[in-house]
Amino acid sequence: MTAASASPPLVPAHFHTFLAFDFGLKRTGVAVGNRMLGTASPQATIRAEGDARFAQVAQRIAEWQPDALVIGVPYHPDGASHENTARALKFGRQLRGRFGLQVFEVDERYSTTEAIAGGAKDADAASACIILEQFLRSLS
């Protein structure tokens, strides 16, 4: 199944706060957002790998108490998967397993390009915002 054929997420109405991640091997962008406002705010990018990354994710979850998590999943322009697609999906499974929260996936093609074009100082955090705002728009 390609990203283009994915159906809109079924998100419980009582889920209001979301924490989003733009996964990268060395840096993971983070944003927090609210369903009611439909907006996201960038948070400090996580600059860690492996268990150190998950320790920082745990801190963000404790701080924001999200109802669910959102991850960006990259695809080629034609919708085909690549190595980073598999890595992002694995990250989502790890989040689900470690933190017991529902994880929603968003096609994040061009989010980093859009963040850079918008003049973002922290392209990873800005990309996480773009991912989360795209997700929040899909809920309306």
UniProtKB/TrEMBL annotation:
Instruction: Give the E.C. number(s).
Output: 3.1.-.-
| Keywords from the UniProt entry | Cytoplasm, Hydrolase, Nuclease, Ribosome biogenesis
Subcellular location(s) of the protein:
Cytoplasm
Gene3D superfamilies for this protein = YqgF/RNase H-like domain
Keyword Hydrolase included in the entry's annotation: yes
The GO biological-process annotations, alphabetized, read as: rRNA 5'-end processing
Entry keyword Hydrolase: yes
Q: Which NCBIfam families does the annotation name?
A: RNAse_H_YqgF
Tell me the HAMAP family matching this sequence.
Nuclease_YqgF (MF_00651)
- Name of the molecule in the record: Putative pre-16S rRNA nuclease
